[in-house]
Specification:
The protein has two domains: 5-18 and 28-85 and 122-199, 3-Layer(aba) Sandwich (Rossmann fold), CATH 3.40.50; 87-120, no CATH class. The chain contains six helices and six strands; from the N terminus they run E-H-E-H-E-H-H-E-H-H-E-E. The chain has helices at residues 32-43, 58-71, 94-110, 123-140, 152-163, 167-171, and strands spanning 5-12, 51-54, 75-77, 145-150, 180-186, 197-199. Strand 2 (51-54), helix 2 (58-71) and strand 3 (75-77) form a beta-alpha-beta unit. Helix 4 (123-140) crosses helix 5. The longest helix is centred in the middle third of the chain and has 18 residues, at 123-140.
Length: 201
């Protein structure tokens, strides 16, 4: 394995309890099927990770802790990898919000940079904390193989950053439950802005 290339694999959590609701900061656990989804993905990988870094929300952390114990590797939790906090919309269905406040929902989907749900985290702050975590991880663990376990919104922010996407392109990124993204970073350049980043999958 090329030691000049940082390997970061990013896994989204699987299916969660309480069904199809807006879920950001609320701390729902995985369903049994969610565990099975993540196990299936992990068991089909041919990679020796050196450590796991996870969101502290239990739909990520519970699985991450179990896997770290099984693989006998260190785990750390990073608040920067938490999902977007949807404020007053947390725990509600999109249908319910659309029926009560379709105008606000439409504004948020069209341009989250300029409109946030009531009492929600600002999208700019969300983006900044995710990218701060991403940069710290990529610069701290230069010669390790890392598995990140996190959320759909976080993965979309990282992908948008790497690919230079606009907010419109960000909105169109699909990240399936229990999907795995492989990112490779050439760490030989001393200038972080010139490092080559490859998305394998």
């Amino acid at each position: 394995m090329n030691k000049n290339v940082l390997h970061i694999d990013i896994l989204r959590h699987g299916e969660t309890q309480k069904g199809n609701i807006i879920r950001g900061a609320i701390n729902d656990a995985l369903t049994d099927f969610g565990w099975s989804q993540m196990n299936f993905v992990i068991e089909n990988q041919n990679c020796q990770w050196d450590r796991i870094i996870s969101s502290p929300l239990i739909r990520c952390e519970n699985y991450a802790s179990s896997l770290a114990k099984k693989l006998d590797i260190p785990i750390s939790l990073d608040n920067g990898l938490k999902e977007f906090n949807f404020g007053d919309w947390e725990g509600r269905s999109i249908k319910d919000i659309a029926e009560q406040d379709s105008n606000s929902l439409s504004k948020f989907w069209k341009n989250p940079m300029h409109f946030s749900p009531p009492n929600a985290e600002s999208f700019l702050k969300f983006k900044d904390r995710v990218l701060s975590a991403w940069m710290a991880i990529s610069e701290t663990y230069t010669y390790e193989n890392i598995l990140l376990i996190t959320h759909g919104g976080v993965i979309r922010i990282i992908l948008s950053h790497i690919r230079g996407y606009s907010i419109e392109e960000f909105q169109n990124i699909n990240v399936d439950l229990a999907s795995l993204l492989k990112i490779r970073i050439d760490v030989t350049s001393v200038n972080s802005n010139l490092k080559q980043i490859y998305i394998i999958k």
